[in-house]
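Researcher: We're teaching a course module on how sequence relates to structure. For the next exercise, students receive a sequence and then see the predicted structure as tokens, so they can try to spot secondary structure elements on their own. Here is the exercise chain.
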Amino acid sequence: MNKYFSSLRLKLFLAGRTLGYTYDYTERLYKIYLNHCKVIHFRDGYPIYSLSSPALFSKPSANLFARIIYRSIQNKNLPNMLSFAVDDRCNASCEHCSFYDSVFSRKKQVLSTGEAKKVIADAQELGVSVINFVGGEPLLRQDLNELIRSVDKDLSTTVLFTNGFLLKERAPEIKKAGLDSVYVSIDSADPQTHDRFRKVPGLFNKAIESICTAKTLGLSTGLSCTLTPDSFTRGEFDRLVELAKKIGVHEVLVFDAMPTGRYKSRKDLINNDWVEDLITASKKYNDDPSYPGVLVWAYSTSHRSVGCACGTSSFYVSPYGDVSSCDFNHTVFGNVRKTPLFQIWDYLSSLPDFKQAKWGGCKIKDQNLRDGGVAKP
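Model: And here is the predicted structure for the students to work with:
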């Protein structure tokens, strides 16, 4: 065999092995992170495994992996995700709300457009690859499309969490502004139960219509739900996944209700036994390609995955610029109007409770953290 064909054979061999290794590596990585490794959607030609992470091989995913490598080299925590509550108003009054104090008191001044844009820019400078726009109800903020437009799309993917009431009307403008994905909250497959839970008549039907509109516009769509031990026992999880399959969403994001906000006194939510059953129940849907991806947040915060990474690789900014480890933890570690965001993050991520991700569920299930008793560095 001549030298040319020997070289070509070697190149083909190496290319095949490299592609095979990359495929195996990717599958294993997402299996650990999500408890599944199926592609749920393609956006702009890039495969998506979850709305909560950048599309694979996109520029934001390159930013994510570069920051992971940098963090390993520097042995320093850097944030991957920002959850930004852009408004303190809400048109619902949900039974489980962790933000209800602010919605009803509204004693502080919400960040201006310029201040909110600076939060986004500063967070991207820190390295976040996912920016979640949350609330209150974020669609009540009129300049939301301007905030979305300000995001450098080469660095971060953008995700909206909404109750869906206003999404149908505003979806075209926020899609045009550059929004990538949207999670619409539906907590029961029964319209009356859902509307009663969120105290807005007709909200279920509005949410379904909004999901259909978002899909038509090309947005990656997800159904976000919050389950309690009672609703899980009643079979709500299975009914919601079947609903998600029927309406054709790409992912179901499942939160186990937290003992915070209106549920602060619910000690039954600290118990993780039922959550283990929830994780087990999700497997059959993730193994079936005909169903959307199912991301159980309790799986992500368990020993099987990354653990609870609030304050370690993610953080939350309130409508007033207060920085917390997450939207369930109301302890404030600084305010962006008074202190640069990078300094607040440096302080927060250096605290003993946040230096490392915690296995075994959300950190806020720890009574000490719920009471604001954070260990000092």
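Model: If you want an answer key for the exercise: Residues 57-369 form a domain with the TIM Barrel fold (CATH 3.20.20.70). The mean pLDDT is 89.
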